[in-house]
Amino acid sequence: MNRYLKLVNFEFNRIAKVFFTLLGLTLIAQIAGDIIISKKYLIQANEAINESLLTKEQFLAKTGPMSMINVTQSLWFLGPIALCAAAVGFYIFLIWYRDWFGKGTFIYRLLMLPTARFNVFLAKITTILLMTFGFVAFQLILLPIESRILKSMVPEDFRSDMSVGGLIGNHQILSIIIPNSMTEFLINYGAGLTAVALIFTTILFERSYRLKGVLMAAGYIGLACLIFISPMLLQSFVLNNFFYTMELFILMILAGLIVLLGSLWMSHFLIKKKITV
To answer: Taking the complete model, does pTM exceed 0.70, yes or no?
Structure first.
């Protein structure tokens, strides 16, 4: 366990500068967007009331009150989230290929450390999870701060206040990355973990068998997808809607667990038996 934790610390330190830079960009962009959008709304309200001679009630009826929804649907808010998600997606591949194609083929030094080879795999997948949860946690911290900034800028009569929970529940993207229930959390991030494990396995196939490994990886992905959708195929084409909705849902979760465990087992086999140093 101690060696595994040291590997996790080592892997995270390699991405720490990029990670904290992205956090800084998210902070600056979202706070700036909050301020800019709030000021723009106030200017619009001022012009409508003072120049167009609308009453406050007429302006609100026409434009609507200001709320955090206006902020969270803007590019200022969504852009950093997309950038962080893209960074995680890119690093899923870079975390392996950097070690192979970097200076001195660093992967061989990692695999020769006095620890189980599979710990290298686990450390890399843990680093991806830490990055993801770090971005999500930081967003959770920012939301009440941004809401307070909006409240300090926009008068109460011109705004519609929302709780953080209400904001998340009414936002299509936030409700995915910050689920409202433990069940949704396990489903969303369990699916993400399974996808990462599957990608790691395909990378190890390619690294173990080179060109032949690409074909094997493609076949493995196809098999994994077939296993995952097999309950729906049975429901639609074999059993003629035999399962209830909840039963089908449970079967798909079990199929996902099979794919996850299968990917972990296959990765353990490949990194231990097929990758030579």
So the answer is: yes
